[in-house]
Amino acid sequence: MTTSAEARTSPKNSRKPQARSLPLRNAIAAIAAEYERMSVRQLFYQVVSRGAIEKTEKGYKRVADACVQMRLDGSLPYQKIADGHRLRRLVYQHGGLHEALENAHRIYRRNYWIDQPIHIEIWCEKDALTGVIQPVCEEYGVTYVATKGFPSLTLRYESARYLRATGKPTRVFYFGDHDASGQQISANLQDELRQHGADVRVYRIALNPDQIRAHRLPTRPGKQTDSRHAAFAAEFGDASVELDALPPNVLTDLVEEMILSVIDRDAWRAAQEVEELERATFESLALINWKPGSVYSLNDGEAA
Fold first, then answer.
1. Contacts of 254 (CB under 8 A, 6+ apart)
2. What are the C-alpha distances in Å from 118 to residues 166, 172, 272?
3. Theoretical Cys-Cys bridge with 198: which of 160, 186, 205, 288, CB 3.0 to 4.6 Å?
4. pTM for the full predicted model
5. Contact residues for 207 (Cβ-Cβ < 8 A; gap 6+)
6. What is the pLDDT of residues 96-136, one digit of tens each?
7. Domain 117-262 belongs to what architecture?
C-alpha cells in the first residue's frame, strides 16, 4: 500500500513549483553545479550550511521532494544524485564470441596492486555514500566496503580471510559518523579483523573533531539511548555529526589522498606499461574473424 508521504516524494510527473519553494530549488541548483555527484543527505547538509533550509526531518523531506521534482522537470540532472541503497544487478553476458573479445579488450585492466608492497581498502559506515566514494576506489582498483553500521561477524571473517590471502600487510582507511557508534566501529575494527588472522592496521580518516571545526559542520545531540554515548560524550562532548555533512569534494579528496599516500609510483608506472601491452594483445584477438566451433592455433590465429 502506498502512503501519502510516498506519493508526495515519488510522483510520476513533476509538479509546478510553488513560489515558496523557489529559493530552495535555486540553492539545490547552485550546489549541484558545484559538485559532481552526491547523496540526497549530503545535498541536504549543503543546503543547511547555506541557510536555505532548517536542519530538521521536515527540512530533509523538503529537500528530497525537491530533488525528485527537479529531476523530473529537467532542472536537475539525474546523474547528480547518488543512490547507494538500490542497485541493478546485471548478468554479464554477450551476443557472441567477437563481442565478448571486444568487451574484454575494452574493460580489461591489470591489477596494479599485485606489485605494491601493501594492500589497502576503503571502509565506510554509510551505505548511502557508496555512489560517492566507490567511483574513486574503482578508478584506482581499490576494494571498497560499506559496513551499513556495525560490520557483521560474517563480513569481518570473510574480509580477514581475503586480507590473509593477499600475503601482504593491509591498511584499512575508515570513514564514519562522529558519534558513539561510529567511533566504536573504528576503535574495534582492527582487533576484530586481527582476531581472524589478518595483518591489518585501521586508520580513522573521517569524521574527526578537527574536520568538524574546519568546515563548521552542523551538529545534532547525541543519542542518549545509545549505551556507548556516555563514554563518547566524556571524550568528545555531547554533539554528534554525520559523515554526510562533510562537503562531497572534501570527502572524495580524502579518499583519493589516502590511496595515493601508499602507492609505490615506480611499481605503478611499470604495471601501466604492461597493461598497455596486454591491451594491444586483446585488441589483436578481437580483430580476428572468429568462426564458431573452430579451434585456432596460438601461432597465427588460423583455424586448426
1. 175, 205, 206
2. 9, 11, 18
3. 160
4. 0.80
5. 175, 176, 177, 178, 182, 217, 241, 242, 243, 245, 246
6. 877 888 888 788 899 999 999 999 999 999 998 998 999 99
7. 3-Layer(aba) Sandwich (3.40)
